[in-house]
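Bug report (template v2)

What were you trying to do?
Predict the complex of my protein with 0WE.

What happened?
Run completed; filing so the output is reviewed.

Input:
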Amino acid sequence: MGFLANKKALIIGVASNRSIAWGVAKAMHEQGAELAFTYQNERLQSRVEKLAKELDSNIVLPCDVATDENISDLFTQLGTHWSEFDILVHSVAFAPKEELEGDFVENTTREGSKLAHDISSYSLTALAKAARPMMSGHPSAIMSLTYLGAMKAMPNYNVMGLAKASLEANTRYMAYALGPDNIRVNCISAGPIRTLAAAGIGDFRKMLDHVEQNAPLRKNVSIDEVGNAAAFLCSDLASGITGEITYVDAGFNIVGMTGY
Ligand code: NAD
Ligand code: 0WE
Protein backbone atom coordinates (compact mmCIF):
# COMPACT_ATOMS: atom_id res chain seq x y z
CA MET A 1 0.00 0.00 0.00
CA GLY A 2 1.26 3.48 -0.88
CA PHE A 3 1.93 6.13 1.75
CA LEU A 4 -1.06 8.19 0.49
CA ALA A 5 -3.60 5.34 0.75
CA ASN A 6 -7.02 6.68 1.85
CA LYS A 7 -6.02 10.28 1.07
CA LYS A 8 -8.06 12.50 -1.24
CA ALA A 9 -6.16 15.17 -3.16
CA LEU A 10 -7.44 18.17 -5.14
CA ILE A 11 -4.96 19.16 -7.87
CA ILE A 12 -5.14 22.72 -9.22
CA GLY A 13 -2.93 23.69 -12.20
CA VAL A 14 -2.82 20.87 -14.73
CA ALA A 15 -2.68 22.32 -18.25
CA SER A 16 -0.75 19.55 -20.04
CA ASN A 17 1.17 16.35 -19.44
CA ARG A 18 4.25 18.58 -18.91
CA SER A 19 2.67 20.55 -16.05
CA ILE A 20 4.34 20.28 -12.65
CA ALA A 21 0.84 19.62 -11.27
CA TRP A 22 0.68 16.54 -13.52
CA GLY A 23 3.96 15.24 -12.04
CA VAL A 24 2.48 15.78 -8.57
CA ALA A 25 -0.78 14.03 -9.53
CA LYS A 26 1.10 11.01 -10.94
CA ALA A 27 3.25 10.67 -7.82
CA MET A 28 0.26 10.99 -5.49
CA HIS A 29 -1.71 8.44 -7.53
CA GLU A 30 1.26 6.06 -7.42
CA GLN A 31 1.16 6.32 -3.61
CA GLY A 32 -2.53 5.44 -3.48
CA ALA A 33 -4.25 8.84 -3.33
CA GLU A 34 -7.66 9.42 -4.89
CA LEU A 35 -7.61 12.52 -7.11
CA ALA A 36 -9.79 15.41 -8.24
CA PHE A 37 -8.70 18.07 -10.76
CA THR A 38 -9.64 21.58 -11.79
CA TYR A 39 -9.16 23.37 -15.11
CA GLN A 40 -8.82 27.11 -15.69
CA ASN A 41 -11.13 27.47 -18.71
CA GLU A 42 -13.11 25.52 -21.34
CA ARG A 43 -10.07 25.49 -23.62
CA LEU A 44 -8.40 23.14 -21.13
CA GLN A 45 -11.44 21.13 -20.02
CA SER A 46 -11.25 18.13 -22.38
CA ARG A 47 -7.47 17.87 -22.01
CA VAL A 48 -7.69 17.78 -18.21
CA GLU A 49 -10.61 15.30 -18.35
CA LYS A 50 -8.51 12.97 -20.50
CA LEU A 51 -5.49 13.24 -18.19
CA ALA A 52 -7.66 12.73 -15.08
CA LYS A 53 -8.99 9.51 -16.55
CA GLU A 54 -5.42 8.19 -16.89
CA LEU A 55 -5.18 8.43 -13.09
CA ASP A 56 -8.61 6.87 -12.47
CA SER A 57 -10.27 10.20 -11.65
CA ASN A 58 -13.58 11.43 -13.01
CA ILE A 59 -13.82 14.47 -10.76
CA VAL A 60 -12.87 17.39 -13.02
CA LEU A 61 -14.25 20.82 -12.10
CA PRO A 62 -13.84 24.36 -13.45
CA CYS A 63 -12.02 27.01 -11.42
CA ASP A 64 -10.47 30.30 -12.45
CA VAL A 65 -8.75 31.33 -9.20
CA ALA A 66 -9.21 35.03 -10.11
CA THR A 67 -12.79 35.01 -8.80
CA ASP A 68 -14.20 34.21 -5.36
CA GLU A 69 -17.40 32.90 -6.97
CA ASN A 70 -15.46 30.29 -8.99
CA ILE A 71 -13.63 29.23 -5.83
CA SER A 72 -16.80 28.98 -3.79
CA ASP A 73 -18.57 26.98 -6.55
CA LEU A 74 -15.57 24.64 -6.75
CA PHE A 75 -15.94 23.49 -3.14
CA THR A 76 -19.73 23.30 -3.38
CA GLN A 77 -19.32 20.95 -6.36
CA LEU A 78 -16.45 19.03 -4.78
CA GLY A 79 -18.71 18.49 -1.76
CA THR A 80 -21.10 16.45 -3.91
CA HIS A 81 -18.25 13.92 -4.46
CA TRP A 82 -16.29 14.16 -1.20
CA SER A 83 -17.52 15.23 2.25
CA GLU A 84 -13.90 15.88 3.35
CA PHE A 85 -10.50 15.85 1.68
CA ASP A 86 -6.85 15.80 2.77
CA ILE A 87 -4.57 17.44 0.22
CA LEU A 88 -4.77 20.66 -1.80
CA VAL A 89 -2.13 21.27 -4.47
CA HIS A 90 -1.78 24.81 -5.86
CA SER A 91 0.33 24.90 -9.03
CA VAL A 92 -0.76 28.20 -10.53
CA ALA A 93 1.01 31.43 -11.47
CA PHE A 94 0.43 34.30 -13.83
CA ALA A 95 1.94 37.65 -14.74
CA PRO A 96 1.48 39.58 -18.01
CA LYS A 97 4.01 38.28 -20.53
CA GLU A 98 5.38 41.78 -21.27
CA GLU A 99 6.43 42.09 -17.62
CA LEU A 100 8.49 38.89 -17.66
CA GLU A 101 11.32 40.44 -19.65
CA GLY A 102 13.76 43.32 -19.61
CA ASP A 103 14.22 46.10 -17.05
CA PHE A 104 12.16 45.35 -13.91
CA VAL A 105 11.68 48.98 -12.96
CA GLU A 106 10.73 50.11 -16.49
CA ASN A 107 8.44 47.21 -17.29
CA THR A 108 6.49 46.61 -14.08
CA THR A 109 3.03 48.23 -13.91
CA ARG A 110 0.51 48.66 -11.10
CA GLU A 111 -2.02 46.47 -12.94
CA GLY A 112 0.53 43.75 -13.80
CA SER A 113 1.77 43.72 -10.23
CA LYS A 114 -1.77 43.41 -8.83
CA LEU A 115 -2.62 40.59 -11.22
CA ALA A 116 0.60 38.66 -10.54
CA HIS A 117 0.11 38.87 -6.78
CA ASP A 118 -3.60 38.03 -7.00
CA ILE A 119 -3.25 34.92 -9.16
CA SER A 120 0.12 33.70 -7.89
CA SER A 121 -0.15 34.34 -4.14
CA TYR A 122 -3.53 35.54 -2.83
CA SER A 123 -5.31 32.68 -4.62
CA LEU A 124 -3.63 30.24 -2.21
CA THR A 125 -5.21 32.03 0.76
CA ALA A 126 -8.56 32.27 -1.01
CA LEU A 127 -8.56 28.54 -1.79
CA ALA A 128 -7.57 27.66 1.77
CA LYS A 129 -10.31 29.88 3.18
CA ALA A 130 -12.90 28.02 1.10
CA ALA A 131 -11.36 24.55 1.62
CA ARG A 132 -10.89 24.91 5.39
CA PRO A 133 -14.21 23.35 6.49
CA MET A 134 -13.47 20.24 4.38
CA MET A 135 -9.80 19.94 5.49
CA SER A 136 -9.96 20.73 9.23
CA GLY A 137 -9.80 18.28 12.11
CA HIS A 138 -7.95 15.46 10.38
CA PRO A 139 -4.33 15.41 9.13
CA SER A 140 -4.37 17.57 5.98
CA ALA A 141 -1.80 19.32 3.82
CA ILE A 142 -1.67 22.23 1.40
CA MET A 143 1.23 22.83 -0.95
CA SER A 144 2.23 25.21 -3.71
CA LEU A 145 5.08 25.79 -6.15
CA THR A 146 7.61 28.60 -6.00
CA TYR A 147 10.86 29.54 -7.74
CA LEU A 148 14.30 30.80 -6.65
CA GLY A 149 13.45 34.20 -8.17
CA ALA A 150 11.54 34.86 -4.90
CA MET A 151 14.82 34.88 -2.95
CA LYS A 152 17.37 36.15 -5.47
CA ALA A 153 17.24 38.84 -8.14
CA MET A 154 17.29 37.29 -11.58
CA PRO A 155 16.99 38.54 -15.16
CA ASN A 156 13.44 38.68 -16.58
CA TYR A 157 11.55 36.96 -13.73
CA ASN A 158 10.79 40.48 -12.48
CA VAL A 159 7.32 40.96 -10.91
CA MET A 160 6.88 37.16 -10.62
CA GLY A 161 9.80 37.22 -8.17
CA LEU A 162 7.84 39.57 -5.90
CA ALA A 163 4.70 37.46 -6.24
CA LYS A 164 6.66 34.30 -5.33
CA ALA A 165 8.21 36.07 -2.32
CA SER A 166 4.63 36.80 -1.26
CA LEU A 167 3.64 33.17 -1.86
CA GLU A 168 6.51 31.99 0.37
CA ALA A 169 5.49 34.36 3.19
CA ASN A 170 1.90 33.24 2.61
CA THR A 171 3.07 29.65 3.21
CA ARG A 172 4.39 30.64 6.65
CA TYR A 173 1.37 32.75 7.67
CA MET A 174 -1.03 30.04 6.51
CA ALA A 175 0.97 27.35 8.32
CA TYR A 176 0.72 29.44 11.50
CA ALA A 177 -3.03 30.04 11.12
CA LEU A 178 -4.01 26.53 10.02
CA GLY A 179 -1.72 24.48 12.28
CA PRO A 180 -4.34 24.35 15.08
CA ASP A 181 -6.78 22.84 12.52
CA ASN A 182 -4.22 20.09 11.76
CA ILE A 183 -3.57 21.49 8.28
CA ARG A 184 0.10 21.69 7.27
CA VAL A 185 1.20 24.19 4.60
CA ASN A 186 4.41 23.79 2.62
CA CYS A 187 5.93 24.95 -0.64
CA ILE A 188 8.35 23.41 -3.13
CA SER A 189 10.88 25.61 -4.90
CA ALA A 190 11.43 23.79 -8.18
CA GLY A 191 14.29 24.27 -10.61
CA PRO A 192 13.43 25.40 -14.15
CA ILE A 193 11.33 22.90 -16.13
CA ARG A 194 10.06 23.24 -19.70
CA THR A 195 6.25 23.54 -19.26
CA LEU A 196 3.61 25.73 -20.95
CA ALA A 197 4.44 28.44 -18.40
CA ALA A 198 8.03 28.35 -19.62
CA ALA A 199 7.08 28.39 -23.32
CA GLY A 200 8.07 31.61 -24.97
CA ILE A 201 10.29 32.71 -22.07
CA GLY A 202 13.42 34.02 -23.83
CA ASP A 203 16.63 32.05 -23.28
CA PHE A 204 14.94 29.24 -21.32
CA ARG A 205 17.31 26.75 -22.99
CA LYS A 206 20.27 28.82 -21.71
CA MET A 207 18.88 28.65 -18.16
CA LEU A 208 18.48 24.88 -18.37
CA ASP A 209 22.06 24.54 -19.68
CA HIS A 210 23.36 26.79 -16.88
CA VAL A 211 21.68 24.64 -14.21
CA GLU A 212 22.95 21.45 -15.84
CA GLN A 213 26.51 22.78 -15.77
CA ASN A 214 26.47 24.34 -12.30
CA ALA A 215 24.02 22.53 -9.99
CA PRO A 216 25.67 20.06 -7.58
CA LEU A 217 23.80 17.18 -9.27
CA ARG A 218 24.75 18.48 -12.78
CA LYS A 219 21.23 18.03 -14.12
CA ASN A 220 17.80 19.63 -14.37
CA VAL A 221 14.91 18.27 -12.33
CA SER A 222 11.84 16.54 -13.78
CA ILE A 223 8.16 16.91 -12.91
CA ASP A 224 8.39 13.39 -11.43
CA GLU A 225 11.13 14.46 -9.02
CA VAL A 226 9.05 17.45 -7.93
CA GLY A 227 6.00 15.17 -7.72
CA ASN A 228 7.71 12.68 -5.44
CA ALA A 229 8.79 15.42 -3.02
CA ALA A 230 5.26 16.85 -3.08
CA ALA A 231 3.75 13.42 -2.35
CA PHE A 232 6.06 13.09 0.67
CA LEU A 233 5.35 16.62 1.99
CA CYS A 234 1.58 16.05 1.73
CA SER A 235 1.74 12.63 3.40
CA ASP A 236 1.69 11.72 7.09
CA LEU A 237 5.42 10.90 6.73
CA ALA A 238 5.88 14.69 6.86
CA SER A 239 3.57 15.19 9.87
CA GLY A 240 6.22 17.29 11.64
CA ILE A 241 6.87 19.65 8.72
CA THR A 242 4.92 22.86 8.13
CA GLY A 243 5.65 26.35 6.82
CA GLU A 244 8.72 25.14 4.92
CA ILE A 245 10.12 25.93 1.50
CA THR A 246 11.75 22.73 0.16
CA TYR A 247 14.13 23.10 -2.79
CA VAL A 248 13.81 20.46 -5.51
CA ASP A 249 16.38 21.97 -7.85
CA ALA A 250 19.34 19.54 -8.06
CA GLY A 251 20.95 21.72 -5.36
CA PHE A 252 21.34 24.81 -7.59
CA ASN A 253 20.25 27.24 -4.85
CA ILE A 254 23.04 26.30 -2.41
CA VAL A 255 25.87 27.19 -4.75
CA GLY A 256 27.62 30.54 -4.16
CA MET A 257 30.10 30.61 -7.01
CA THR A 258 31.20 28.21 -9.72
CA GLY A 259 33.85 28.01 -12.40
CA TYR A 260 37.13 27.65 -10.44
P1 NAD B 1 1.80 25.13 -16.45
O1 NAD B 1 1.55 26.17 -17.50
O2 NAD B 1 1.73 23.73 -16.83
O3 NAD B 1 0.86 25.40 -15.19
C1 NAD B 1 0.43 26.66 -14.80
C2 NAD B 1 -1.04 26.53 -14.47
O4 NAD B 1 -1.56 27.74 -13.96
C3 NAD B 1 -1.91 26.17 -15.70
O5 NAD B 1 -2.58 24.97 -15.46
C4 NAD B 1 -2.88 27.32 -15.79
O6 NAD B 1 -4.14 26.92 -16.25
C5 NAD B 1 -2.90 27.77 -14.35
N1 NAD B 1 -3.46 29.10 -14.16
C6 NAD B 1 -2.97 30.31 -14.54
N2 NAD B 1 -3.83 31.30 -14.22
C7 NAD B 1 -4.90 30.70 -13.62
C8 NAD B 1 -6.13 31.16 -13.11
N3 NAD B 1 -6.46 32.46 -13.15
N4 NAD B 1 -6.98 30.27 -12.56
C9 NAD B 1 -6.69 28.94 -12.54
N5 NAD B 1 -5.54 28.44 -13.03
C10 NAD B 1 -4.67 29.31 -13.57
O7 NAD B 1 3.25 25.51 -15.86
P2 NAD B 1 4.07 24.94 -14.60
O8 NAD B 1 5.47 25.29 -14.89
O9 NAD B 1 3.68 23.58 -14.31
O10 NAD B 1 3.60 25.92 -13.43
C11 NAD B 1 3.03 25.45 -12.22
C12 NAD B 1 3.62 26.17 -11.02
O11 NAD B 1 5.00 25.84 -10.91
C13 NAD B 1 3.55 27.69 -11.09
O12 NAD B 1 3.25 28.19 -9.79
C14 NAD B 1 4.96 28.06 -11.44
O13 NAD B 1 5.29 29.38 -11.02
C15 NAD B 1 5.72 27.02 -10.67
N6 NAD B 1 7.13 26.80 -11.06
C16 NAD B 1 7.43 26.53 -12.37
C17 NAD B 1 8.77 26.31 -12.73
C18 NAD B 1 9.15 26.03 -14.16
O14 NAD B 1 10.31 26.25 -14.51
N7 NAD B 1 8.26 25.52 -15.00
C19 NAD B 1 9.76 26.36 -11.74
C20 NAD B 1 9.41 26.63 -10.41
C21 NAD B 1 8.08 26.86 -10.09
O1 0WE C 1 6.94 30.76 -12.44
C1 0WE C 1 7.33 30.58 -13.56
C2 0WE C 1 6.57 31.11 -14.75
C3 0WE C 1 5.21 31.59 -14.39
C4 0WE C 1 4.53 32.38 -15.49
C5 0WE C 1 4.68 32.12 -16.85
C6 0WE C 1 4.00 32.88 -17.79
C7 0WE C 1 4.18 32.69 -19.28
C8 0WE C 1 2.95 33.13 -20.04
C9 0WE C 1 3.71 33.42 -15.12
N1 0WE C 1 3.05 34.17 -16.02
C10 0WE C 1 3.17 33.91 -17.33
N2 0WE C 1 2.49 34.70 -18.21
C11 0WE C 1 2.37 34.40 -19.53
O2 0WE C 1 1.76 35.16 -20.31
N3 0WE C 1 8.52 29.90 -13.73
C12 0WE C 1 9.31 29.59 -12.57
C13 0WE C 1 9.09 29.57 -15.05
C14 0WE C 1 9.96 30.72 -15.45
O3 0WE C 1 9.42 31.83 -16.00
C15 0WE C 1 10.45 32.73 -16.20
C16 0WE C 1 11.65 32.17 -15.75
C17 0WE C 1 11.33 30.87 -15.26
C18 0WE C 1 12.27 29.91 -14.65
C19 0WE C 1 10.41 34.02 -16.71
C20 0WE C 1 11.60 34.73 -16.81
C21 0WE C 1 12.79 34.19 -16.36
C22 0WE C 1 12.83 32.90 -15.83
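What did the reviewer find?
The chain has a mean pLDDT of 98. Residues 174 and 183 are 9 Å apart (CA to CA).
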